[in-house]
Amino acid sequence: MKDHLRAVSGQVIAIGVALLMGAIIILMVGESPLRVFMTLLRGAFGDQEKIAGTLLQTTPILICGVAACIGLRGGMFNVGIEGQLFLGGFAAAWVGFAMPLPAGIHTLAALALAVVAGAAWVAIPAYFRARYNTNEVVSTILSNYVAVLLTSYFTIFLFKRPGGWSETPPILATSYLPEIFTFSRLNWGLVIGLVLAVGAALVFRYTKWGYGVTMVGSAPKFAEYGGVNVKRQGFLVLLLSGAVGGLAGGVETLGVHHRFMEGFAPGFGFDGLIAALLANGSPVATIFTALFFGALRNGSLLLEVDTSASREIITVIQALIILSVSAQVLVRKRGDSQAGERRWKF
Amino acid sequence: MSNTPGSPTLHSNAAMAVELTGITKRFGAFVANDGIDLAVRRGEIRAIIGENGAGKTTLMNILFGLLQPDEGSIRLNGEEIVIADPSVAIKAGLGMVHQHFKLVPSLSVADNVFLGMEIRRHGLIDHAAQVERTRELSKRFGLQVDPTERVGLLSVGIEQRIEILKVLVRGARTIILDEPTAVLTPQESRELFQTLRSFVAEGMTVIFISHHLEEVMEVSDTVTVLRNGRKVATRPTAELSKDELVHMMVGREVSFDRRARASLHGDVVLEVKDLWARDDRLLPALRDASFTVRSGEVVGIAGVAGNGQTELAEVLSGLRPASHGGAWLKGRNLTALSPAAIRQAGLAHVPGDRMVRGVDRNASIAANTLMGRQHRAPWSRGGMLNWNAINQNAETLIKSFDIRARAAGDAVKRLSGGNIQKVVLAREFTNGADFLLIDQPTRGVDIGAQEAIHDEIMRQRAAGRAILLISVQLDELAALADRILVMFNGRIMGEVAGDDADEERIGMMMAGVAAPEFAAEIAS
User: Fold this and answer.
1) Looking at CA atoms only, how far is residue B421 from chain A in angstroms?
2) Tell me: the pLDDT tens digits for B208-234?
3) A119 found inside a domain
């Protein structure tokens, strides 16, 4: 419990430091930090529509975050969630516009193909990792570019809707993810995300498989010694992580855009990974960090309307958070080192 | 602070390299050091000895500025000093060689030695000068290293020499070593002692932490014994016997005498035949090993570390492929099975490198006791873990194996080395296996815990388990084993009955002289 408190307080301090540095940069561009932060807050939570908008932005970040958590738990750094999301998004759209099916079943079929697409996309790096010990960080990062361009190719050359836009035909209404409120596009994707987060936490904690995976991630030689097949579990974990990444794309297509278009969900995969890291790989904690990033994104929409700051300032703040979180990891590692307790512990 | 002449406590004595007075250090309610006085003369080798948790490392960390004392004062060469952090200690001529090394594997030996204080020429690193200076120091103190070699390719023993060189180039006159021999082979330990003697011959001072009686007797001039955070005594080594030392350390007599036993050898449980295996560099490391282990029997494997014992253990547990031959556990050939299948066939394994293989340091004691049995009821049913049963079992094991921990939920990394080993033993000895593969059960474990571990091994023998005990400590084998096999260069050089274990004969075999009946076979 004490360890938990320490971890949480560390993350809070890291975010605080990032916001403070962000404030200095806002001052440097000649805006009032207080005004910018208040505007962000109002833009994110000012009324029920804004809150729904924040939750709408949170949804893909949350699902991608869970995908990242699954990988991290098994010691795998899936940096290819962005690409898996694009392929999942496209796969869901294809089922949506090309395959007439009854309502409900249509949605499930589209989500299922999104899952398969995401898993299939990560299967290549996962296989090379298991077979030849290829570093999955590099191969999954690179696979992002291929995924984004491949879906662009599909969209523009094979399935382009007549007209000026680089997008597929709209999906049939039978495949929509139902919306929760009338005043927002917020849909059942959020519920899917929450269920996944809690479900992943329960699986890790209460199943035999989750125990093995946790040990592979945390002490691979110990897991091997205990009879866990380290390579197979590593492969499975990456596959599962990719499947959830694909699902995130499916949810985005079926719930929000109702078609696939180029650059349809920029950066959600990476935001999800950062949210997962900020949450120390805990799926439940990722709900809150994803909400934080969703609020930043949604709040920033109001930023350019109400202040002279550019909405890019939130990208700066996100980068600062990454920096301070990584720095904090280094500090904590040092505190744990053989050199013993340091007096300047964080 | 000025010295007050005539007052004995404040009397400055420039012949003393280190004087600690009334050092007290508390961690919460736990008193790690309780009013410890320690005075080390310049030019002596001082051993600080005590059980795990006696406060040795804490005291040295205070001296080196890694910890601040709650009470007490420090003088170096007669001058009072506040050691706020290690840089102060280094400036004052102290150097510390830690148990765990901090080297950059991709850099050369010389680059590691001079890391952070590079010799520069025209603003660039003068590699030639660094190599030259490293070579000169290593010659002077008998620390054999090749300064141009990359550290990643070197053995632990050589890494330690590099750590010592690092301390030397930083100008240390008083060198503190924390458990320096824990990672060394007997041969490397002897070379280290030579080096320590050459330090004092040049007027330097050595303080080393150990709980290995033999080496303390061999190399130190004076011994300070700590127990439960207090100083028990400081005595010249020459006046002490091993028995007295043990008595001071643990406050009661401990014997490594041969354990009484009834002969109850049953059926053959493990049969190893013509077994060969390669090491990580793909060179033959285990050559043509053949032996059997019966139920109710402890077969010991003696040998200097690195003569094929690790590879033998890894092949038997499925962590390394055999290149030829086989090993049958109750009739099933282990070399064809995965680690999981071997466990199911009836293996329990206490690994030699317990921190890496034996536990997940970040996980709880309960989670650590689950490994290897997570597939079985009552620990899991239908893929779901039963944490109630797991936690309860862990609490029971904590009691029955006397693990010093507060609760089953404690992270293993919060435990001392001896208690971590007890967690491993508790898990492996209670999983119902017929064959126990036990590798270095008491390495780095204090004497009190050693005795408890030996008791437990004898109980397992009495319960009819077949036990293969690999150890580099001869007294341990002599106390426990029914038969002792001696390994050298991957081969079994001979067999000695435990009842007439003759240190000299075993020593010959460990050095590569085969027993006559084995020599013929090796030659063929």
Assistant:
1) 14
2) 998 677 788 889 999 999 987 899 999
3) yes
Q: Is residue B118 part of a domain?
A: yes
From the list B61, B66, B372, the residue facing A226 with the nearest CB is: B372
Tens of pLDDT along B460-504?
Answer: 999 999 999 998 777 889 899 999 999 988 999 999 998 887 776
CA-to-CA distance for A6 and A345, rounded, in angstroms?
Answer: 11
Asked whether residue A313 is domain-assigned, the answer is no
Q: Which two tokens stand for residue A329?
A: 């990891």
> Which two structure tokens, joined as six digits, stand for B398?
């904590």
Interface contact A263, partner B, CB < 8 A:
no
Closest-CA residue of A relative to B340 is A227
Using an 8 Å CB-CB cutoff, list chain B residues near A228. Answer: 340
Q: Could you give the C-alpha distances from A92 to A63, A81, A108, A150, B296, in angstroms and in order?
A: 16, 16, 9, 15, 64
Into how many domains does chain B fold? 3
Identify the pLDDT of residue A335: 43
Yes or no: say if B33 and B197 are a contact pair by the CB < 8 Å rule: no
Instruction: Classify strands B30-41 and B16-27 as parallel, antiparallel or unpaired.
Output: antiparallel
Q: How far off is chain A from B37, nearest CA to CA, in Å?
A: 22
- CATH number, domain of B205, equals 3.40.50.300
Asked if residue B223 belongs to a domain, the reply is: yes
Residue B342 maps to a domain: yes
- Highest mean pLDDT among A116-120, A272-276, B308-312, B454-458 belongs to A116-120
Of B251, B283, B300, which residue sits at a domain end? B251
Q: How far, in Å, CA of B154 to CA of B157, rounded?
A: 8
Most confident option among A291-295, B50-54, B416-420: A291-295
Q: Which domain holds residue B136?
A: 101-169
Q: Across the interface, which of A221, A229, A339 has its CB nearest the CB of B356?
A: A221
Pick from A207, A221, A342: CB nearest B357? A221
B362/A218 Cβ within 8 A: yes
Residues B180 and B40 in one domain: yes
CB contact under 8 A, A212 and B374: yes
Does B33 touch chain A if contact means CB atoms closer than 8 Å?
no
- Does residue B455 lie in a domain region? yes
Task: Decide: residue B311, CB within 10 A, 0-12 exposed, 13-18 middle, 19+ buried.
Answer: buried
* Better pLDDT: A163 or A252: A252
Q: Domain range holding A83?
A: 57-300
Same domain, B449 and B338: yes
Is 0.80 surpassed by the pTM of this model? no
Q: Is A6 inside a domain boundary?
A: no
Give the mean pLDDT of B126-151: 90
Pair A252, A89: CB distance under 8 Å: yes
